[in-house]
Specification:
Tetracycline Repressor, domain 2; 3 domains; 482 residues; MgtE N-terminal fold; 6% strand; CBS-domain; 6 strands; 22 helices
Length: 482
């Protein structure tokens, strides 16, 4: 990839300021262009062209001063028409970096407007691992042309990068690293490094390999710099450094980086041959994307959504779980319908039953959040389900007795009926037990089925605790109060 320029780093407040400035420039541009367009004056086209260029030049200068990640932030925050106008003003040699930074949904909207020749020019700016990230969104003819334009080594790297499954270490790794042999001196290594214009980003160690490119160990840069130049690499290299396999889970890599405070780690294949490295920036991106995906999954959203997407695109992304929610809401309404006579005889039931369902839903969401997090961190094994279930049931029982007793006392005080208070306490406790059980079982079952444990979790837990809470409360009330 071409050498990148240096840009100042912006905090969130500064980014918001830049966004407001860009929005103001776009607003002024549209306003003045509209006024000039409506005026009947001599040399109208010339005046309109000058006004047009003046505002766009000011906007272009603003964009040129920003980091690609900051421009990506601006693009995501702009409506489609303004986004495309800004995108056209970005320098062509920065398109690739920006496309890698924007969200998947926004990237698709930008790529749709680009010609194949533009996309090929963008792709040629990127390294193989970056191309692999971009490839799923590129038209097939662009991929074919790109493969033909690459040399043999680059073609093999791209093919290898695209072959790794999403969510694997291979999909995170890059091919830009420095390797040395163990039978050379540190002086030779230093002379070799001076031949680079700059070292690859996040280079904190060199990888020591043999003649067949098999990994032998690592040489940290701080060890290289403070030792006698005549010492050989093999005498100082570390052979116990953490090594990742290309087929490992990306979550495994993220856990390792967090636990051992890593900056980079070598990646090998099944024969210990060095094939790449993973760096902390790639791991952080994976963690952020995984967290965002989990948030969306818990709400039942199929994929990340461009906030300025068309109405139809948003509807397609959201309809699945809304349909399920509608079905579960209908079931809950029929549960209530079973006890219409009881509610007519004791109106207090209608006022109190949402409390039982609501507390159950909140408790279930707490349980499911803890379990999904534990699964993501690899803390839950096959033998943990029963233990976790017992623990969560115990927590639910205690919470149910404490808060159920409190709400039972309030119900007794409000409606002067000790039996109603007892029913509230029992219903609250039972519904919390249901919520705890379902909060453990749902993510565990989804994991066993090979699905995302967070997928639709909050929707399902709410459905169960609503229907279950209404049935338990109204059923107990019918048995003991009427």
């Amino acid at each position: 990839m071409a050498e990148t320029e240096e840009f100042p780093h912006q905090d969130q407040d500064e980014l918001l300021t830049h966004l407001r400035e860009v929005q103001q420039l776009l607003s002024r541009h549209r306003l003045v262009e509209g006024l000039v367009h409506r005026q009947d004056m001599p040399r109208h086209d010339l005046v309109e062209n000058l006004v047009h260029k003046q505002h766009l030049a000011e906007l272009r200068n603003k964009l040129d001063s920003l980091h690609p990640a900051d421009i990506a932030y601006l693009l995501e925050a702009l409506p489609r028409e303004d986004r495309l106008l800004v995108w056209d003003l970005v320098k062509a040699d920065r398109d690739g970096e920006i496309l890698l930074e924007v969200s998947d949904a926004v990237r698709e909207s930008l790529i749709e407007t680009m010609e194949p020749a533009e996309l090929i020019a963008v792709a040629e700016q990127l390294d193989a691992d970056e191309l692999a990230d971009l490839a799923p969104d590129l038209p097939q003819e662009v991929i074919d042309d790109l493969f033909r334009s690459l040399d043999g080594e680059e073609r093999e790297q791209l093919r290898a990068a695209m072959s790794y499954a999403e969510g694997s270490v291979g999909a995170l790794m890059d091919f830009d690293y420095v390797s040395v042999r163990e039978d050379i001196s540190l002086e030779v290594v230093l002379r070799y490094l001076r031949r680079f214009d700059e070292l690859p980003d996040h280079t904190d160690q060199l990888f020591v390999v043999d003649r067949e490119a098999r990994l032998r160990g690592v040489l940290p840069l701080n060890v290289l710099l403070v030792n006698d130049p005549d010492v050989e690499v093999g005498d100082l290299m570390q052979t116990d450094a953490l090594t990742l396999q290309a087929s490992d889970s990306a979550n495994h890599a993220a856990t390792a980086f967090e636990r051992y405070d890593l900056v980079s780690a070598p990646v090998t294949d099944g024969t210990d041959k060095l094939v790449g490295r993973v760096t902390v920036n790639a791991v952080l991106d994976h963690i952020r994307e995984a967290a965002e995906a989990e948030q969306l999954a818990q709400a039942g959203l199929h994929e990340e959504e461009d906030i300025f997407a068309s109405i139809w695109d948003s509807v397609k992304n959201r309809w699945r779980w809304l349909a399920i929610n509608l079905i579960t809401a209908f079931i809950a309404s029929r549960v209530i319908g079973l006890f219409e006579d009881s509610i007519e005889k004791l109106v207090a039931l209608a006022a109190l039953m949402p409390i039982v369902a609501g507390i159950g839903g909140n408790s279930g969401n707490q349980t499911i959040t803890m379990i999904v997090r534990a699964i993501a961190l690899g803390q839950v094994g096959e033998d943990s389900e029963r233990r976790l279930l017992h623990k969560e049931v115990g927590v639910a029982m205690l919470n149910g007795l404490i808060w159920g007793s409190l709400i039972g006392l309030l119900a007794w005080w409000l409606y002067k009926d000790v039996r109603l208070g007892a029913v509230m306490t029992a219903a609250m406790t039972l519904n919390l037990l249901v919520a705890a059980t379902v909060g453990v079982v749902i993510p565990m079952t989804l994991r066993k089925l090979g699905r995302d444990p967070a997928m639709g979790a909050s929707v399902m837990i709410t459905a169960v605790t609503d229907s279950g809470g209404f049935f338990i409360f109204l059923g107990l009330a019918t048995l003991f109060l009427l």
